[in-house]
Amino acid sequence: MNNVLPESVDAWRMVQARRSFQGSLPLASLPRLRGSLAASDGVVDFDLEFGKDDLGMAHLRVRAQASLPLTCQRTLEVFRLPVHVDTRLGLIAQEADEAALPGEYEPLLTVDGNLHLADVIEDELILALPVVPVKPGTEHEAPAFTGAARDEPEVSKNPFSVLKNLKHKKT
Fold first, then answer.
1. Which contacts (CB < 8 Å, 24+ apart) does range 75-79 have?
2. Within a domain: residue 156?
3. How many CB atoms are closer than 10 A to CB 115?
4. How many domains would you assign to the chain?
5. What is the C-alpha to C-alpha distance for residues 48 and 56, in angstroms, rounded to an integer?
6. Are strands 114-115 and 106-109 parallel, antiparallel or unpaired?
7. Separation between Cα atoms, residue 79 and residue 71, nearest integer Å
């Protein structure tokens, strides 16, 4: 087990050594995720384990927990969404190898063997984000609008109504 997360590792060497990494990363250090968050404060706790299963399949198990600050799209309030990731990524060297992965594995393409572990954690958190963030308990509330509410549909004016007046004016 290692508490320091290296920037890049050789995935195949990590599998052979059955290495694992545990620790935490600040959410501010994850630039692609940061764009979806309401704030960049907080951390993600992670546990990464390289290994092989009974069939000899090289894999990376990713476990991560974070409380992500999101903006509710119904009330426009910031709320914290607890996210728990527990996934197994099958390490493959080329896209054609994806078909050989067992069903419980998601593919992780490692063309040159190098993995950026922080990017893998960030990818899994991005995948865990809801498409439309809604604060729990507000599913049945009326949405917040910034514009004025209209009860009646707007009656559109006919742009040619001015011509009607010209037709009746014969002088």
1. 75/135, 75/138, 75/141, 75/143, 75/144, 76/144, 77/135, 78/38, 78/39, 79/133, 79/135, 79/136
2. no
3. 22
4. 1
5. 18
6. unpaired
7. 6
In a domain, 162, yes or no: no
> Is 155 within the bounds of a domain?
no
Confidence of residue 85 (pLDDT cuts 50, 70, 90): very high
CB of 22 closer than 8 Å to CB of 121: no
What range defines the domain where residue 28 resides? 9-146
For 95-139, write each residue's pLDDT tens digit: 988 988 988 999 999 988 899 999 999 999 999 999 999 988 776
Tell me whether residue 170 is in a domain: no
Query: Is the distance from CB of 36 to CB of 126 less than 8 angstroms?
Result: yes
Q: Which residue has the tokens 């001015």?
A: 162
In the DSSP assignment, the letter for residue 153 is P
**Spatial contact of 40 and 34, defined as CB atoms under 8 Å apart:** yes
The half-sphere exposure of 135 on its side-chain side, counting CA atoms within 13 A, is 19
pLDDT digits (tens, 9 = 90+) for 38-61: 999 999 999 999 999 988 899 999
pTM exceeds 0.85: no
Give the closest residue to 48 by CA, choosing from 104, 4, 114, 105: 4
Interstrand relation of 9-10 and 78-92 (parallel, antiparallel or unpaired): unpaired
Tokens of 11: 């995935």
Start-to-end C-alpha separation, the chain: 98
